[in-house]
Every structure is written in structure tokens, then in C-alpha cells.
Write a structure and sequence with these properties.
With 106 residues, this protein is of the alpha+beta class. The chain has a single domain, classed as Complement Module, domain 1 (Ribbon), CATH 2.10.70.10. It is built from 1 helix and 8 strands; from the N terminus they run αββββββββ. The strands form 3 sheets. The chain has a 4-stranded antiparallel β-sheet with strand order 2-4-6-7, with no helix packed on it. The chain has a two-stranded antiparallel ribbon with strand order 1-3. The longest helix is centred in the N-terminal third of the chain and has 16 residues. It is elongated, with a radius of gyration of 25 Å.
Length: 106
């Protein structure tokens, strides 16, 4: 081996070691009753680092807590986790003031 081939071999080894990043993936989240999850990337699992999951409730329902989670991880593992808590979709009751209405039947 001459000095040029040793140098090229060393550069190739360094290059290969530097450009194989760990890809962090998160599993799918549990579905939400009376709503859906809208992902910022492809809706099929696994989801890549940085994916945002937004919870949306069906008509007549509202989120119990803030409806967004993010796929994150620390890089020491390929398995990530979702930051935040899973909300629920709760029935929303709207009462309108109507003069002389008997509310006892509700």
C-alpha cells in the first residue's frame, strides 16, 4: 500500500463513522375516543423525531387538556417517546339562556 491509498482509506473510514446518525422513532399513539390524531408527518408508525401529533375532537366534544405531543429522544437509543399527555375528548354542553324555559327536564 502506498501513502495515497492509506490516506484515502483513512478518509473513507472517518467519513463512514461520521455519517451514520441514529434515527429516533416513536411508536403510534393510542387512538382517542370521539376524536382523531393528526400527525405532522406520515400517519403510519413509526414516527420520526420531531413529529408533532395534534389531537382533534369530533363536533360536540372538546379536548380535556392541550392537544399536542412531540416525538423526542436523547439519541442514546433509536426508540423515542412522546412529550406531553394524551388528552380525552369530553362532551361539550352549551346552555343558552332562553326566557321562561323550564331547565328541569335536562
Amino acid at each position: 500500500m502506498n501513502s495515497d491509498s492509506i490516506l484515502i482509506e483513512h478518509i473513507v473510514q472517518d467519513h463512514c463513522n461520521l455519517y451514520f446518525p441514529t434515527v429516533i422513532m416513536c411508536p403510534s399513539l393510542l387512538s382517542i375516543v370521539n376524536g382523531e390524531i393528526v400527525y405532522s408527518t406520515d400517519a403510519t408508525a413509526p414516527h420520526v423525531y420531531g413529529t408533532t401529533a395534534n389531537y382533534v375532537c369530533n363536533s360536540g366534544f372538546g379536548l380535556s387538556i392541550r392537544g399536542s405531543r412531540t416525538c423526542t429522544g436523547e439519541g442514546s437509543s433509536t426508540t423515542g417517546s412522546w412529550v406531553g399527555f394524551q388528552p380525552t375528548c369530553e362532551r361539550v354542553f352549551c346552555y343558552h339562556h332562553i326566557n321562561n324555559y323550564d331547565w328541569s327536564d335536562i
